[in-house]
Every structure is written in structure tokens, then in C-alpha cells.
User: What shape does this take?
Amino acid sequence: MSDLKKTLLKTGIFCGAFYTFDVLFLSMPCFGVLAIGLLFLAGGIYALLSLRKNERELARAYAVQSLLGLVTLVAIFGTFHVNRWIGHRNATPIIAAVKQYKELHGEYPVRLEDLVPEFLDKAPRCVRVDLLRGRYGYFYDAEHKWAELVYFWSYGQRDGYDFRRDEWRELMGL
Assistant: This one.
């Protein structure tokens, strides 16, 4: 196996390991984004420097290495975007059930479990593309007639469906 192929194989394994670590285990862009971002930048810089020295084979290896880093970065962030989309889509029946409950009873349910079995077959669960599984939370304030469905889609990242505004919004802070 040529040195070029060995380098590319090592780069592929490196990118795959960090994708797996960030997406499947951490459930947040972290170490892989930093490491692969540095790989992408360094590979691009070395490719340009190698071209200036007229070392085309080496320049090609660094360019492909940089491209693998870029593809992995896109895959990491793309997976988080897909997880967020899946969580919102899977919340649609929950949102509809809460709205139906309020229409029938004149107020929001106190807990999501109050929707079972009349409006939902079973308690809501979130399925995603990682090992940590996103989850839904539900907050109800009887005094202010307010309810919000919260989707925890990554560490420290969550979106809330505000039933009064009838829309999703990104929730900031812890």
C-alpha cells in the first residue's frame, strides 16, 4: 500500500472515530469538531505549501485529507440538524394532543401522561440518530394558563414549543 493510501486510510479512521465520539456518544459538537477543523485547516495549508514546492503527490494527499475533514465536519453538523428536525417532527402528535385536550377540557394538561389513552396511545418518547436519545419535557403553569413542550436535543441545547404562540423557539441558558 502506498504512503498516500496509508495516510488517507488513517485520516478516514481518525475522522470516523471523532464523528462517532461527537455524534453518537457526546451528542454535541465538541472534540471532533475542534480536531477535524484543525485537520481541515492544516491539510489545506500543507497542500498549498506542497504545491509551491512542486510536490504534486504530497499536495494531493493533503488536499484529500483536508477534504475528508470538511466532509466530516458537514456530517457532524448535519446529524445534529437532522436530530433536531426529527425531534420537532416526532413532537407533532404530542402538540396536537395537547391542543385537543385544551379544546375539550378548557385548560392544558398538567402532565403529558394525562393525554394517555384518550389522546395518545402511550407516553411520548423521542427517537433520534444517536445513543443518548433526546427527550421531551413538559411545563405547565395553571396560574398563567401557560404550557410549553421542551425538546432536549443536545447537551445544553433545547427548543420549546410555546402553545400560546403556537411556535417552536430556541431556549437559551441552562
The radius of gyration is 23 Å. The chain has three helices and four strands. The first helix runs from residue 3 to 26. The mean pLDDT is 81.
